[in-house]
Amino acid sequence: MPFLIALDEGTTSARAIIYNERGEALAVDSAPVESHYPHSGWVEQDPEQIWQAQIESARRALAKAGITAKDLAGAGITNQRETTIVWDRHSGKAVAPAIVWQCRRTAAWCQELAKSHGEEITERTGLIVDAYFSASKIRWILENVPGVRERAEAGDLLFGNVDTWLIWKLTGGAVHVTDVSNASRTMLYNIETGAWDDTLLKIFDVPRAMLPKIVRSSEIVGSCVSGHLGAAVPIAGIAGDQQAALFGQACFRPGLSKNTYGTGCFALMHTGAHRPVSKNRLLATRAAQVSDPQFAVEGAIFVAGAAVQWLRDKLGIIQTAGESEALAESVPNTNGVYMVPAFVGLGAPHWDSEARGVLTGLTGATTRAHIARATLESIAYQTRELISAMEADSGEALAELRVDGGATCNNFLMQFQADILGRRIVRPADIETTALGAAYLAGLATGVWSGSEEVEHFWRIDRAFEPKMSADQRESLWHGWQTAIRKCRA
Ligand code: ADP
Fold first, then answer.
1. Top mutation candidate among 11, 15, 101, 263 for ligand 1, by most atoms within 8 Å of CB
2. Residue 322 CB less than 6 A away from ligand 1
3. Mean pLDDT over all residues of the chain?
4. Closest ligand 1 atom number to CA of residue 304
5. pLDDT value at position 12?
6. At how many degrees (to 10) do helices 411-421 and 471-489 cross?
7. How far apart are alpha carbons 299 and 140 in whole angstroms?
8. Local structure of residue 476 (DSSP, 8 states)
9. How is residue 110 annotated by DSSP?
10. What is the pLDDT of residues 456-470, one digit of tens each?
């Protein structure tokens, strides 16, 4: 019986999950990955620790499942996106710590760049110029680590996001590749042509010799050196975490979409074989690619589950995130209270870094239950803003929204999401969709599954939430939210 392993390297931990040929998870293991904050706004990780955490969790997951690497048909890799690593191709040593996607060290430079080249870069990449993406991080390493630029020009240094780094390690330095979904987050990749773009390489001053070969998300790119896991396991799937989650939600066709409710939210809508151009300041991206190129639009909410953590850690009105559900349901509504958790500004579609959070509509009758309810509702309202922008871009209404991430276990939130969106919310049986997507990609490339139809066949729903609220009530609440947003941007 063939098994698959998904290596899911996230921002806070590296996880490994073993799946059987019905796509069922059999064993999970994880190891923490530390972030370091050497200056205000800087975020770094140790590339060696990322590798060790990943390989050790993979070995333990195999042991927990009671199988060996010889039983694996293939490995799929999914990763925190944009995080930038530069290493020496001869020694295998990184020349600097990994610069994590959250790191803001290049923000000022990017602001200037946005003024001079913003439109041109968006036209080529589908992205909005920001320190978040890899290109300015690579440039920072080349400019600031002594001697590095010369070595990069001479072809001695390699760049990779975390997918590329792990594959290079797994193959003993034999394979230097990335997939289209990760490439499309670097800001060096032309989303239209599907290749590294000379104009962008020039703008960011990055030598082409450093860049990995771009491959599809589902193909065998090489094999693990047997010493690592105990057999030469084919590496057969690669996708950045959000695109892997879209795939793991079986969103294989245009119009299908998912929202991940974690610390923040990430919503992606599959838009088919043509490059989307957003009129509502969403990002265009490559979706995971099995055969022909596929595209998606993406929007992010910075503070979602993190607002629930704030209720717990800063206000102390709940002891656990899970308690927020019963507390919110202890009142019939928020009694006019709105909470906008713009703690770090607002993301899509507002893109307002100056906005700050507001709590409005308070009266002497406001209780902690109203505040907890308003906080959960804010996650659903922000999601409606993203989904409305996606629908406006695509000209089509969503049939349903598939959901995953830690906060989806909150049934109040899911029902309110269905109500305020006026759309069906679908929660799958396996909400580890990121790892599942990587396993699907690897299983398709190695012939464990014949095609996406077969995968769709065993993809399972846990629960669907149908909208129950009247249209009048929905629009009246929505109007109140828009007023609160205006206050927070004032
Ligand atoms: P991440 O991958 O971003 O770390 P997770 O998917 O693990 O996030 O989800 C954790 C987030 O979900 C936390 O911000 C937490 O506050 C929130 N969360 C967890 N359980 C609940 C719940 N029952 N209700 C609301 N929010 C929750």
1. 263
2. yes
3. 95
4. 14
5. 87
6. 100
7. 26
8. H
9. H
10. 998 999 999 999 999
260 contact partners, CB below 8 Å, separation of at least 6: 242, 245, 266, 267, 403, 404, 405, 433
- Residue 466: how many CB atoms within 10 A of its CB? 11
Residue 261 CA to residue 416 CA, distance in Å, equals: 14
Beta bridge partners of 28: 17
Whether the per-residue pLDDT at 1 is higher than 80: the answer is no
Per-domain residue ranges of the chain = 3-242
pLDDT-derived band of residue 345, with 50, 70 and 90 as boundaries? confident
* Residue closest by Cα to atom 17 of ligand 1: 305
Which residue is closest in CA terms to ligand 1's atom 20? 407
pLDDT in tens, 18-69: 999 999 999 999 999 999 999 988 999 999 999 999 999 999 999 999 999 9
- The domain defined by 3-242 folds into Nucleotidyltransferase; domain 5 (3.30.420)
**Residue 431, token pair as written in the block:** 């909400």
Tens of pLDDT, residue by residue over 370-386, are 999 999 999 999 999 99
Q: Which amino acid is located at 465 in the chain?
A: F
